[in-house]
C-alpha cells in the first residue's frame, strides 16, 4: 500500500501540483477569483428579482413589475463577469512577469473589447452586444488576456519600448512604455475582427464545445471531485490544483444559468461550482462535516473528542483544514477511503436529483462560508428541496464515516492507554525520597 501511495505521489500528485502553479494557469485562477465579489453581489439581485415566494404574493408581483430596474446591478456585475476577469488575468500575469500590472490589465481589456462587433441602432448610436461579456465569453477572455500580456513581455524583453528620461514621473514613463504593445494589440485585433470579419467567439465556442458538454455529464462532475479528494489525501490543496483548470468552466456554467433565469429561459447547466460547494463538499472537501459529527457522538479517545468540539464551528462554515491536518486525514489510510469516496456518492445523488428535476439547478453565487443548507437554498433561488438534499447528504457522509472513524478512534485510544500505562509504570518505579 505504501509503495503504491509513493508511486502516485511521485508520478501524479507532484506533477499536478507543479502544473497548478504554472504561470498562466495561476493568472487565470487569480483573475477568476478576483471577480468573485462582483459575481456574489450581482447574483443576489437575481433572488430579489425572482424572490422565493409564491407567484400570487404581492412581493413576487412587485418584483416582476420592477425586474428591469432590479436586474441593472446584476447586468453591470455578474452578467459581464468576463470583463472583470479579463482585467484580473492581465493584471496577475503581468505582475508575475514583473511588468506593470495596471498596463497588463488595461491592454487585456482593450483586446477583449475588440473581439466584439458594435451594433448601430437608430437614435442611439453604437452599442456593444453584452452577451459575450458574460460567462459565454470567458474562454475568449483567457486567450486574449494571455496574448496581450505576452506581447507586452515580448516588447519589454526585446527593448521595443519608448523610454522616457529619468526625470519623468514613473507613472508617465510606464504609460509610454506600454504604447507600442498597445498599438500592436489594437491594430492586430482590429485586423482580425473588423477587416477580416472573423468572429473569434464563434471559433472558440466550436473549439471548446466538447469540453463544455463533457463537464456537465456525470463523469464530468465525478472526475474533479475524485481528483480534489485524491490530492488532499497527500496534503495538496485539491481545489487549487483542479480549480485552476476547472473553475473557468464552472464560472461559464454559473453565468449561463444566471442569464437563463434573468431571461425566463430553462436553466441549462447542472454543475457550476455552486453545485459542488453546497451539495458535495459539505463542511469542506471530503464532506468532513459528517466526520466531525462522528467525532462528537462516538469518539472515545481524548484527542478526537477534543478535536470534534474544536472543529465543529469551522466545519459548519466550510473551513476544514483543521480536520484535514488535525485528525489527520492526510496520508491516513483509515480515513482516506471515505474522504475520497463519500463525495463521489453525494455527487451522484445530487447530479440525478438535479437532472431529474427534484431540485433546481444552482445559479446564485452565495458566499462559501455560509452553512450548507442556507447556501444551497440561496444558490438555487430559494428551493426548499435543496435544504432536504443537503441534510440527506450530511446523513450519508455521517453514516459512511462512522466505521472508518471507529477503527481510527480505537487505534488512538489504544495508544493513549499504552502511554498512560507507561507513564504509570515510570511514576511507580521512581524512588520515594520523602
Description:
The protein is mainly alpha-helical. Helices cover 71% and strands 1% of the residues. It is built from 21 helices and two strands. The longest helix is centred in the last third of the chain and has 46 residues, at 384-429.
Residue fraction in strands: under 5%
Order of helices and strands: HHHHHHHHEEHHHHHHHHHHHHH
Helix content: over 70%
Q: What separation lies between the terminal Cα atoms? A: 53 Å
Number of strands: 2
Oligomeric form: single chain
> What is the overall silhouette?
globular
Structural class: mainly alpha
Radius of gyration based on Cα positions:
26 Å
- Ranges where pLDDT stays below 50 over 5 or more residues in a row are none
Query: What is the overall number of helices?
Result: 21
What number is the mean pLDDT?
87
How would you write the strand order of the largest sheet? 1-2
Largest sheet: 2 strands, antiparallel
Concise overview:
The protein has 434 residues and is an all-alpha fold. Helices cover 71% and strands 1% of the residues. It is globular.
Main features:
single chain; 434 residues; 71% helix
Helix and strand layout, with pairings?
Layout (H helix, E strand, L loop, with lengths): L1 H19 L2 H12 L1 H14 L8 H8 L1 H4 L1 H4 L5 H16 L4 H13 L5 E3 L3 E3 L10 H20 L12 H8 L1 H17 L4 H16 L2 H15 L5 H26 L9 H7 L9 H10 L3 H15 L4 H6 L6 H23 L16 H8 L4 H46 L5
Helix pairs in contact: 1-14, 2-7, 2-14, 7-8, 7-9, 8-9, 9-11, 13-14, 13-19, 15-20, 16-17, 16-21, 19-21, 20-21
Amino acid at each position: 500500500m505504501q509503495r503504491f501511495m509513493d508511486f502516485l505521489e511521485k508520478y501524479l500528485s507532484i506533477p499536478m501540483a507543479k502544473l497548478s502553479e504554472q504561470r498562466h494557469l495561476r493568472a487565470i485562477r487569480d483573475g477568476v477569483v478576483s471577480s468573485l465579489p462582483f459575481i456574489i453581489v450581482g447574483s443576489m439581485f437575481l433572488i430579489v428579482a425572482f424572490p422565493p415566494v409564491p407567484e400570487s404574493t404581492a412581493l413576487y408581483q412587485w418584483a416582476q413589475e420592477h425586474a428591469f430596474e432590479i436586474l441593472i446591478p446584476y447586468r453591470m456585475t455578474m452578467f459581464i463577469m468576463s470583463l472583470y476577469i479579463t482585467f484580473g488575468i492581465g493584471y496577475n500575469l503581468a505582475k508575475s512577469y514583473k511588468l506593470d500590472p495596471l498596463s497588463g490589465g488595461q491592454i487585456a481589456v482593450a483586446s477583449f473589447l475588440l473581439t466584439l462587433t458594435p451594433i448601430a441602432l437608430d437614435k442611439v448610436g453604437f452599442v456593444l452586444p453584452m452577451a459575450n461579456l458574460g460567462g459565454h465569453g470567458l474562454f475568449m477572455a483567457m486567450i486574449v488576456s494571455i496574448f496581450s500580456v505576452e506581447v507586452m513581455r515580448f516588447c519589454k524583453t526585446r527593448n521595443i519600448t519608448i523610454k522616457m528620461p529619468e526625470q519623468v514621473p514613473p507613472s508617465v514613463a510606464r504609460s509610454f512604455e506600454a504604447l507600442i504593445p498597445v498599438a500592436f494589440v489594437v491594430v492586430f485585433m482590429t485586423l482580425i475582427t473588423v477587416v477580416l470579419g472573423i468572429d473569434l467567439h464563434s471559433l472558440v465556442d466550436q473549439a471548446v464545445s466538447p469540453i463544455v458538454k463533457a463537464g456537465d455529464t456525470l463523469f464530468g462532475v465525478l472526475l474533479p471531485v475524485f481528483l480534489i479528494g485524491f490530492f488532499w489525501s497527500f496534503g495538496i490543496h485539491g481545489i487549487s490544483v483542479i480549480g485552476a483548470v476547472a473553475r473557468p468552466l464552472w464560472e461559464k456554467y454559473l453565468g449561463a444559468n444566471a442569464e437563463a433565469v434573468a431571461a425566463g429561459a430553462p436553466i441549462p447547466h447542472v454543475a457550476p461550482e455552486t453545485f459542488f460547494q453546497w451539495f458535495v463538499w459539505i463542511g469542506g472537501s471530503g464532506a468532513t462535516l459528517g466526520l466531525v459529527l462522528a467525532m462528537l457522538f462516538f469518539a472515545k479517545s481524548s484527542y478526537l473528542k477534543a478535536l470534534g468540539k474544536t472543529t465543529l464551528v469551522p466545519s459548519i462554515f466550510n473551513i476544514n483544514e483543521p480536520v484535514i491536518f488535525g485528525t489527520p486525514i492526510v496520508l491516513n489510510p483509515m480515513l482516506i477511503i471515505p474522504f475520497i469516496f463519500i463525495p463521489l456518492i453525494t455527487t451522484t445523488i445530487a447530479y440525478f436529483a438535479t437532472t431529474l428535476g427534484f431540485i433546481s439547478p444552482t445559479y446564485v453565487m452565495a458566499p462559501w462560508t455560509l452553512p450548507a443548507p442556507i447556501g444551497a437554498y440561496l444558490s438555487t433561488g430559494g428551493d426548499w428541496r435543496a435544504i432536504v438534499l443537503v441534510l440527506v447528504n450530511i446523513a450519508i457522509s455521517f453514516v459512511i464515516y462512522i466505521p472508518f472513524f471507529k477503527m481510527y478512534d480505537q487505534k488512538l485510544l489504544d495508544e493513549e492507554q499504552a502511554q498512560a500505562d507507561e507513564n504509570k509504570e515510570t511514576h511507580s518505579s521512581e524512588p520515594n525520597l520523602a
